[in-house]
Specification:
Helix content is 42%, strand content 14%. It has 491 residues and is of the alpha/beta class. A 7-stranded parallel sheet has the order 3-2-1-4-5-6-7, sandwiched between helices. Strands 10-9-8-11-12-13 form a 6-stranded parallel sheet, with helices on both faces. Strand 8, helix 12 and strand 9 form a beta-alpha-beta unit. Helix 6 crosses helix 7, helix 8 packs across helix 9 and helix 12 crosses helix 17.
């Protein structure tokens, strides 16, 4: 294993002849990824950037509950500087049937604190462990890092500054907002942020009687108290208001560093392995195709799935649609722990749809290489669930969006993207075929709102690239964090 070299001798203490005769091991960071590929992928991208730009090695720590084939394949594909360890299984059978995902993840994390403490103590014996980073549902794991004597403890927030501002504000909002957020007469206005209508606020906050709500308030309090920094997978240009505020030090909260966009690179997929999606795109005109995908965990109710199909057909636009079986028997996040479609999704499409649209559309089950699709010259639009990873990928490749949010923070993201920065057009709430068709047409070829969205996304694409360059805002922020991790280490 890569850690073996770091384990030889005790030269990292910086004393004696041994230290002079061989270089110290590289700084090492442990990162906890709570369940969901949408949490693991940006953490892995952060680990890659730490390795390539700063010579930092990483151990990604995962939960046994997400040891899927997809996750195992992903972890095995990472560079040698990034290793992985899995925490032991946790019994959650005492939780109510149908407990929210946020509750399941938070409970699992809390119950794993002793095991994580032990794991970190072991890592300290074999590596030069300089920091511990937990993702957004891992706030309680910071206690494990403290117990293991890891001095530098950070939160990695894989979504955006708007959502972070909300969570940091939750302890105060919990005390001052009477009733449910969904019943607010006016949009919720937080410092620097777009006003968010009550019904669009973060899903686990929509029912204060649900344990998921109390967990989110708990995380907001832990964010304020425990970490020395919060690293955010966003960039200033897409959220200028909250970026300006959160970048400034303030009492009662950690320093916030926007270090994004961190997205999965497309280079890992070898061009020698042909993909039917890409081969189909190769035959389409430039910027003529709208890509339709609801992320690794999203599924539509059957009726919406049918209206979407008929709306795409009615729009007259070329489309590439990643389709899954509907969510009627479960929830819209039916596929959260496993991205595979549960049943044959083609059986739920309107009769004759595939045949009628075969000259302009391609429907694929469960999965498509999203990065390759978004990067393709033929892709001119993206109908997305507004998961933040997908949003960032779309912006990096300059693809304007149709917003169709499903769960988690996606409705809030849709408001920020459509009403705030102007990088998306939101599908009307009714989800009828005519409105879907009109929205898709407007994005792809409209001269009004569609043209404005296309121009804004081109502007954001340039800003994202500038920030990641050496000396750019995001690159400089990450360099500052690494300097703090390695300065004055306590061994």
């Amino acid at each position: 294993m890569e850690h073996a070299a770091a384990a030889n001798g005790s030269c990292c203490n910086g004393n004696g002849a041994t230290a002079a005769s061989s270089p110290p091991p590289p700084p090492h960071v442990a990162m906890l990824a709570t369940p969901g590929m949408g949490h693991l992928i940006p953490l892995a991208e952060l680990a890659k950037r730490l390795a390539s730009r700063h010579g930092v090695t990483t151990t990604l720590v995962t939960f046994a509950s997400t040891a899927s084939t997809t996750q195992r394949a992903f972890l095995s594909s990472l560079p040698p500087a990034i290793s992985s360890l899995s925490l032991p299984p946790v019994d959650l059978s005492d939780l109510p049937r149908g407990a929210a995902i946020e509750t399941l993840m938070s409970e699992e994390c809390l119950r794993l604190v002793p095991a994580l403490t032990s794991l970190l103590l072991d890592l300290k014996k074999t590596t030069r462990l300089v920091a511990f980073v937990a993702d957004l549902f891992g706030a309680d794991s910071l206690d494990a890092a403290a117990a293991a004597g890891v001095e530098r403890r950070c939160i990695f927030f894989p979504t955006n500054l708007h959502v972070l501002t909300l969570i940091l504000s939750l302890p105060e909002l919990d005390a001052t907002v009477a009733g449910e957020f969904r019943d607010l007469a006016e949009p919720l206005r937080l410092p620097g942020c777009v006003g968010i209508p009550g019904e669009d606020i973060l899903m686990p906050l929509q029912d204060k009687t649900n344990p998921a709500y109390r967990w989110m308030v708990h995380h907001g309090q832990k964010y304020r108290e425990a970490p020395e920094a919060i690293l955010v997978n966003s960039f200033d240009a897409v959220e200028p208001g909250p970026a300006k505020i959160l970048r400034q030090p303030a009492p009662g909260r950690p320093v916030v560093y926007p270090i994004g966009p961190l997205i999965q690179g497309g280079k890992e997929e070898d061009a020698s392995s042909p993909c039917p999606c890409v081969e189909w795109l190769d035959r389409q005109p430039e910027k003529s195709v709208i890509f339709v995908s609801f992320g690794s965990g999203g599924a539509l109710p059957a009726e919406q799935m049918r209206e979407l199909a008929l709306g795409l057909e009615l729009s007259g636009q070329r489309f590439l649609w990643v389709v899954r079986s509907p969510s009627d028997e479960g929830t819209v996040n039916e596929n959260y722990y496993d991205a595979q479609s549960k049943k044959d999704p083609f059986a739920y499409l309107p009769e004759g749809f595939i045949e009628r649209t075969k000259d302009v559309g391609l429907v694929v089950p469960s999965w498509a290489p999203q990065i390759k699709v978004l990067a393709h010259r033929a892709t001119g639009g993206f109908l997305t669930h507004c998961g933040w990873n997908s949003v960032l990928e779309s912006l990096v490749y300059g693809v304007p969006m149709v917003a169709w949010p499903l769960f988690a923070e996606q409705r809030q993201n849709a408001v920020m993207l459509s009403e705030g920065i102007g990088a998306a057009i939101r599908v009307p709430e009714s989800k009828g075929r005519e409105k879907i068709a009109a929205t898709v047409r407007e994005l792809m070829e409209g001269e009004g709102k569609g043209a404005a969205v296309r121009a804004k996304v081109a502007e954001l694409q340039k800003a994202a690239a500038e920030g990641l360059k050496e000396g750019g805002a995001a690159a400089a922020a990450l360099a500052e964090v690494v300097d703090k991790w390695t300065a004055g280490e306590k061994n």
